[in-house]
Amino acid sequence: MATASRPAVIAGNWKMHMTCAEARAFAQRFLPLINDLPGDRTIVLAPPFTALQTLSEALAGSPVALSSQNVHWEGHGAYTGEISPAMLLEHGVRYAIVGHSEPRKYFSESDEQINLRARAAQAAGLVPIVCVGESDEQREGGDTERVIRRQVEQGLQGLDPCQLVVAYEPIWAIGTGKTCAASEANRVCGLIRTWVGEPSLVVQYGGSVKPDNIDQIMAQSDIDGVLVGGASLDPEGFARIAGYQVAAPV
Ligand code: 13P
Prior knowledge:
It is a single chain. The chain is globular, with a radius of gyration of 17 Å. Helix 3 (85-89) links the parallel strand 3 (64-68) and strand 4. It has helices spanning 20-30, 52-58, 85-89, 101-106, 111-124, 136-140, 144-155, 182-196, 214-218, 235-242, and strands at residues 8-13, 41-46, 64-68, 93-98, 127-132, 165-168, 202-206, 225-228. It has a single domain (8-242), classed as TIM Barrel (Alpha-Beta Barrel), CATH 3.20.20. It contains ten helices and eight strands. An eight-stranded parallel beta barrel has the order 1-2-3-4-5-6-7-8, surrounded by five helices. The chain is α/β, with parallel strands linked by helices. Helix 1 (20-30) runs parallel beside helix 2 (52-58) and helix 1 crosses helix 10. Bound molecules: 1,3-dihydroxyacetonephosphate.
């Protein structure tokens, strides 16, 4: 739940979806739908690198911020397929997703590499969105807390927790339609904040977030936002997520 010290961050991770033309069409439909959002939330979109410039132009003058889906720790050099912080800043990017479970799984990204990426992002003025999460097997084996704690301790080492977002994304809930129970997601997000030791750390939940479960997720005391995959590709659906409503505490 957003608080004065922890404004909500609602982010859409487009993964490997959206050409430039599709990104432009998305922005045209999405922006008029979010005209009247409350000021307690930041909306972020993370397109593929190729659509950053197009989306940056399409979002100009809007309250929507831009994120990359990765960032390298070196400023330049022989790193085929990678992108530097300065290259992202040139396109108006403000956030950088690192440590998502997909590069962890498909490209064997380690916590050490993720930490280097996040540190370089912060040093350049980008806010890293560092993803952590356990697999189905790890959860079934009672290993959730140990796994997340290791990812937090190694991945966040040396980072300024006030210029950081952590996304708790249980791997078994990503793209499966199986949302983690809101109370359990809340518990793990709270643990992450405790381990980091910074009460103002923004912690998101990610994994099958949809228009029909967003209000319940955002009502949780320790969840300050969401990282949305599939449902962020639909302008109307993502606008509903961005416009989540939480009943005022009585
Ligand atoms: P889904 O919302 O499609 O489950 O994806 C979550 C995710 O991986 C966001 O980074």
